[in-house]
Amino acid sequence: MERKPNDTKSLAIAAARSLVIDMTNKAKSGHPGMALDVAPAMVALFQDHLVADPKHPDWVNRDRFVLSSGHVSALLYATLHLAGYDLSMDDLKSFRQLGSKTPGHPEYKETPGVDATSGPLGQGIAQAVGMAMAEEAIRAQYPGADGVFGHYTYCLCGDGCLQEGISQEAISLAGHHRLSRLILLCDLNGATLDGPTSDAFSENLRLRFLASEWNVLEVKDGNDVNAISKAISKAKKQDGYPTAILIHSVIGYGAPKQGSHKTHGSPLGEADGSQAKSVYGYPYPDFTVPDEVYSQFANTFGKRGEAAYRRYQATFQDFQAKELKEAQRYLDAFEGNFVDAVVNYPAFDSEKAESTRSLSGKCLKALHDAIPCTFGGSADVAGSTLTNIEGEPMFDILSRQGRDVHWGIREFAMAACCNGIALHGGLLPYASCFLVFSDYMKPAIRMAALQSLPVAYLFTHDSIAVGEDGPTHQPIEHLAMLRSVPNLEVVRPADYVETIGAYENIRLERNHPTALVLTRQNVAPVGGNSVEGARKGGYLAYKPKGATHLILATGSEVALCVKIAKALNENGSPVAVASLPSVSRFLSQSEKYVNSVLFLPRDKRISVEMASTFGWASLAKHNIGIDGFGASGKAGDVIASYGFDEEGLRKKVEEILRLG
Amino acid sequence: MERKPNDTKSLAIAAARSLVIDMTNKAKSGHPGMALDVAPAMVALFQDHLVADPKHPDWVNRDRFVLSSGHVSALLYATLHLAGYDLSMDDLKSFRQLGSKTPGHPEYKETPGVDATSGPLGQGIAQAVGMAMAEEAIRAQYPGADGVFGHYTYCLCGDGCLQEGISQEAISLAGHHRLSRLILLCDLNGATLDGPTSDAFSENLRLRFLASEWNVLEVKDGNDVNAISKAISKAKKQDGYPTAILIHSVIGYGAPKQGSHKTHGSPLGEADGSQAKSVYGYPYPDFTVPDEVYSQFANTFGKRGEAAYRRYQATFQDFQAKELKEAQRYLDAFEGNFVDAVVNYPAFDSEKAESTRSLSGKCLKALHDAIPCTFGGSADVAGSTLTNIEGEPMFDILSRQGRDVHWGIREFAMAACCNGIALHGGLLPYASCFLVFSDYMKPAIRMAALQSLPVAYLFTHDSIAVGEDGPTHQPIEHLAMLRSVPNLEVVRPADYVETIGAYENIRLERNHPTALVLTRQNVAPVGGNSVEGARKGGYLAYKPKGATHLILATGSEVALCVKIAKALNENGSPVAVASLPSVSRFLSQSEKYVNSVLFLPRDKRISVEMASTFGWASLAKHNIGIDGFGASGKAGDVIASYGFDEEGLRKKVEEILRLG
What we know:
The structure is a homodimer.
Chain A: H1 8-27, H2 32-48, E1 64-67, H3 73-82, H4 89-93, H5 123-141, E2 153-158, H6 159-163, H7 165-176, E3 182-188, E4 191-192, E5 195-196, H8 205-211, E6 215-219, H9 225-237, E7 243-248, H10 269-280, H11 291-322, H12 324-335, E8 354-355, H13 356-370, E9 374-378, H14 382-385, E10 404-406, H15 411-424, E11 428-434, H16 438-450, E12 456-460, H17 478-483, E13 489-491, H18 496-508, E14 514-517, E15 522-523, H19 531-535, E16 539-542, E17 549-553, H20 556-570, E18 575-579, H21 583-587, H22 591-597, E19 605-608, E20 622-624, H23 635-641, H24 646-658
Parallel strand pairs in A: 1-2, 2-3, 3-7, 6-7, 9-10, 9-11, 11-12, 12-14, 13-14, 17-18, 17-19, 19-20
Antiparallel strand pairs in A: 4-5, 8-15, 16-18
Helix pairs in contact in A: 1-2, 1-3, 1-10, 1-11, 2-3, 2-9, 5-7, 5-15, 7-15, 11-12, 13-18, 15-16, 20-24
C-alpha cells in the first residue's frame, strides 16, 4: 500500500488530479498540465467557499464560477462530480466524446454547474466581470429585496488569459467599478503551450493589477491549499476592490515532466499517469474515488449550498409577501420574460426622413421605460449611437442602480461582459458602437451566439455614408461577417416601423443575440409597411403590376429603391421591391410566405445593399453593392462616387433590366 | 495687433493649431479637440527630434511616426505641411474631401509622410511596436551594415488607444522585447467622446507601463513644449526599455469649451475658432502661416533630415562597396523583391496523406531558408500550427537576429504588429494561430487589407475536424468572414501541390495580405494537379466524360470529393470536381479560363466545404456545408455526424443528383 495523504482534503485533491489523468488518458485528448497544478485551488474554492446547490444548479443567487482557462475542463468536471452535481463517473469516462455531458471545453447548458462556455482565452475574465457587474446592479435595483440577493463571482484563469488584451479591458473595468465581490484566481504555472511563459511575457502582474485598482494577494505555493483558502477568505472580506490571487504553481504537478510546457496539451499516458498518482499518494484504480472524498464534499460544499438555497427561499418568500409586484418583476427579469411589458414607442412622422440610429434611440428609450432591467451603453460613442437614456444615471460605484453603462473604449470587453450579464440573468443587456468596430467584438459575438445569449448589439454608422471619417470607419464586409455567424440575428431596419419590429423581437425572443445595424444619415420612411411585416424579417414594400424584376434591399436602400422602382414603373419598367431587414428571420418563415415575397425567380432578383455583396447570391442573381473599401469625403459625394445616389443606383438597375 | 507669441516655436504651435481650426471649420467635419491640445508635442517632435527627409518620404531609414489616434489627422497634415512635405495649403483646404491627399484619418500611401493608416484605436500602438521590432531585427540581420541602419519609432496616442486591450498586448510585447528605440507619446487630456475619461477609466498608467517594463516620463503641462522636448531627449538616451511619455493636457486648448469632451468631435466654428486663435496669439487670416514658421521647420526638421539622408547614402555606398551581395539582399528585402530566391520545397510523396499544416510547415521552412528576411511565428501555438523553424533562434533581447517570433497569447497584437513590420519594410512577416482565433485578429487583418500589406496568416485547425476541443475551437463562419474582406486573399489548399502554389504566390506578390487555411488532420493528395494550376486559384481536379454535375471543393474536401466522384462515375453518374483553393484569385483569371473550369451552369454545380455555406451561392446552386456550430468529440465521429465522412457526403451529393 502506497503512502496516502494525511488528510481528506489532500486526498480530495489527489482524487481530482487522478480523475484528470484518467479522463484525459481515456479520451487520449485534453490538457492535463494546468488541471493538475490548479487542483488545490479548485478544491479550496469548492470545499471552503463557493456557495451553490448542486441540486439546483440554476439557482439565480448561487456564486458564479467561470473557468476562463476552458482547457482545464477535465478538472472542472471532476470537481463538479465530486461536489455532487448530476455528473456521473460514466459522464467523466466519456470525456470529450460526441454527445457527452463532458465536452472538450466547458459549454453552458451542456453540463450542470457550468456557468459559462469558455475556451477562447481572456473572455472568461470578461464574462466574470459582467456577472459581477450584474450582481451589483441587481442588488441595487431591488432595494426592497435587501438580503435576498447577493453572491460572489469567482473566475479561474492562467497566464494565457492574462496575455490577451481583453483581460486588461476587463480588469480595468472591474477596478474602475470597484467590483469587490469579484475574485480572480490566477494560476501562474510559468508555462504556456510553446514554452516557458517568460519566452513571451515579462509583466509584473502584481503591479498591473494594482495599476487597475485591484487588491492583490499572492500564494507562493500552489499546493498549499490552506494558503489558497485563506487568501480567498481575505478576498471575500474585501469591501473596496476586486481581488486577484496570484497563485504560483508547477505545471503538470506530479507528472514526470512537471514544470514543462510539454504536460500542457497531451494526456500523460498510463506510465506517467501512474507515476503521478503515486506522487499524490493515490493508490486507487482508475476512475475510483473513496467515499470519504464524496462525504467531505457533501459535508462542506453540499451542506453549505443546501442551507444557503433554503435560506434564500425563505427570504425570497418574505420579499414576495412584502412586495409582491417587485418580487414578480425580479422573477420576470431572471426568466427574461418581458411579454407583458407595455412599450410605448413614441409616435412617428410617416413623412419625415430620420436616421435609424435616432429611431433606435427612441425605441431604446421606450424599452428602457417599460422594462426596468435594461442595462447597457456604448463604447464611448453614446453621443453618436444615440444610446444615451435621458435622466438615467450612469452605472457607477456611486450609483449602482444606474443602468447606463459607460464601457469606455473597450468594444471587446463590452461584448464579452454583456455575455456575462446575460449568463448571469436578471438584466437585459445591450452594447453599442459603430458597425465597423464590430470587428473588435467578433470573438465575443460568436460566444454570445454559441451560448444562445439574448444580447442586443446596436451598431450605427453602417455604411460608406459615414462620409468624412473614411475607409477605416466605413463598414463594407461587416454585414456579411455578422450574417455568417450561426444563431446571430442581423437586422438592418429601413425606417421606424422596421426598427420597432426589431425591438419587439428583441423584447420577446430571449434565445439568441441580435445585431441591429443602423444608419448615421437620415432615411425616408418606406411607407405603407407594418410592424407585423417587419417582424417577419421581410415583406414586399412595392409591387407594381406585371413586375419583371424584384429588388431585395435593406436599411437605407429600401426607400430609395422604392422611389427608383416607382419611377421605373412610370417609364414602363415595372420593378418590385422587397425589404429584408432580417434575412435569416425571413428565410425561417413558412415556405408559402417566403415564396410570396420572393415571387420572381432568382435570376430576376436584384439585391441592393450599400455594402459587400458577399452572401447575397443565394437570394438574387444580380448583386449591387460595394466590394472594395470606402473613401473619405462628404457623405453625399462618397455615396455618389459608389453609385448609390438615386441617379447612380437607377442606372445600375436599368443596366440589369436591359440585360434581361 | 493682438499679442503674438514671444518665440517662433510658440508661433509654430499656434500656426499648427490655427490650421487645425481652419481645416475642420472649412470641412465642417473633424476632431479638433485632441489636435489642439497635442500640437506642442507634435511640434517638439518634428522640430527637435524626428529624423526624416520630406524630399524622400519613403526613405527606409527615416524615423517612423505613427499617429495612433488617427482622428488627430488635421494636426498631422498641418505639421507635415509646415515641415515641408509635398502637401500644399490647398491640400489642407480640401481636408476630408473626396479624392484629396488629406482624408479623414491618415491613410498610408495617400499622403507623403504618413507612415501608417490609423483610426481604429489601439492598433497604431501595435503597428509602432511592429516597426520597432523590425528596426531591431534588421539592424541585427545585416552585421556588415553597421552604422547604415538605425532609427527611432515614435507613436502618439491618447487615452482612447490605451483603453483598448490591443494596447496592453502591444505594450507588453514592447516591454518584453526591450524596444528601447520606441517612444510613445501619450496625450492624456482627460476627456473622451462621451465625457471625462474618469467616467470609465481609473487606471494608474504610470504603474501599468512600469508593470510591463517600460521607462515612464511625465510632463505635467502639455503646453510646455520644452519639457516635452526634453522628455523625448531623455527617452532617446534610454538604452534598456521603451519609453512612455505621459503628457497631461487640456482638450481643445484655447477654445472657449476647452477641457470639455464637447471639443472632441466637432469643428469649433468661426466664433470659437477666432477666440481660440486670439488665445494663441495668432492674428493671421485663415490658412495663413508667416514665413518664419516655415523657415524654422526648414532649419530644424528639414536640415536635420536632409543631412541624415545624405549621410545614409554615403554609409550605404560604403556598405555596397564592402559587401555588395549583402547590400543587394538589403535592397531586395526593402523592395519586397524575392523573385530570384531559389526555394527548395522538399520533395513529397504523392501517395501519402498528410495534414496541410504539416505541408505548410515544410514550405515555410523552405521559404525561410531561401529568403533570409522572413520574420514571424505564432501566438503560442507554434507546436500545433507547425510554424517552428528548426534551428532558428527566437527573436529576443538576447538574439535580435532571431527570426522566430514568440508572440505570446496575443493574436490581435501579432496581426497588428505584422502590419507595422510590413509597413516598415525589410522583412517578410507572417503570423500563425488556429483559424477560429482569426476572430481576435479581424480588426488588424482588415487594416492589412486596407493598407495592401503583404502579411501572411497561417491559420490551422480549419474545421470541425479539430474534434475534441469542440465548438469554441471549431471554425464555421471564419472562411466566409475572411473571404468577405476586400483585398485579402484566402487560400485553402488541398494538398502539397496547392500549398506550394500558395507559398509561391505569397513570395511573388507583395501587394496584399494572404490567409492560408490549413487542416489539422491528414488529407490525401488530390493527384494529377500542378503548382501552376493551383497558382491560378482553381482548376479541374477530375472530369469524367459527360459529367452532369460539377463539385466545387476546397482544402480537405477535394481529395474526398474526387474519390466520391470516381465512385459515382463508376455507378453511371459522372460528376466532375474542381478544386478552388483561392476563390478570389480564380475569379480574377481570364473569362475563358474561368469558364473552362466552371464548364457546367450554376444550377449543376455543388459547392462542398466543411464550413458555413455563406457566400458559396454565387458559384453553385447547391451548397453542402455546416451552418451551425460544431461539437466536441473524436474528429471522425464529429465529421461523420455532420455528414462529411465519405458515406455521408456521397449521400448528400447523390440526393442533389437525384433532384437533377
